[in-house]
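Troubleshooting log. The previous structure file for this entry was overwritten by mistake, so regenerating from the original sequence record. Sequence copied from the archived sheet and checked twice against the printout by T.R.
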Amino acid sequence: MHDSTIFDQQLAGKLLQINAIKLNATNYFTWASGIKSPIYCDNRQTLAFPEVRKLICEGFCSVISKLYPNVDYVAGVATGAIAHGMLVADQLELPYIYVRPKPKDHGMSNQIEGVIDPGKSVVVIEDLISTGGSSLKAVEALRKAGYNVLGLVAIFSYGFRVAQEAFEDAECSYTTLTNYETLIKEGLNQDYIKSNQVAELSAWRSSINQESKK
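Regenerated output below.
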């Protein structure tokens, strides 16, 4: 298993360097949900950088080998984690499937793509956890199909309370390779953000957590 602290920092730094994660404390991004955010994460960009792609795959494999040694299947969440999940399954020499947000409206109407073998133990690969909603829809689909979901591993998490509570309610464990706090520290180390912006970035995440209590 890698040294998680060093790995977290290294990966966060790489994500900033290749602009997979963008920080802007003055001109907020708008997410699809309508949330105004000083951070925008698109981990699909990591696929264009072999060094970063390999680093992420190694991180996933290390976590899975330590936490879920009895895994039978790897499942990627569409669309952001399809490629990462496939790389992990290939490295671990395991069968691979991926999960759509909803069943197709044509053909076989599949939501889960790949060989279905109910009763097997699955680890879910995700690129990003914000509220946890889309990730847990994939978990629910796999459970309904008869899989034993051991847990979920993601590249990055904002660490929102609403996500933590959602995973607890779903009785699904999850782990991330890096996170929001580490990202801020690395942004500061790389002079990507200034020290006077750290408080605002931390306050934004706190405001989202407070909002989730209402």
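The chain has a mean pLDDT of 91. Archived copy saved in two places this time.
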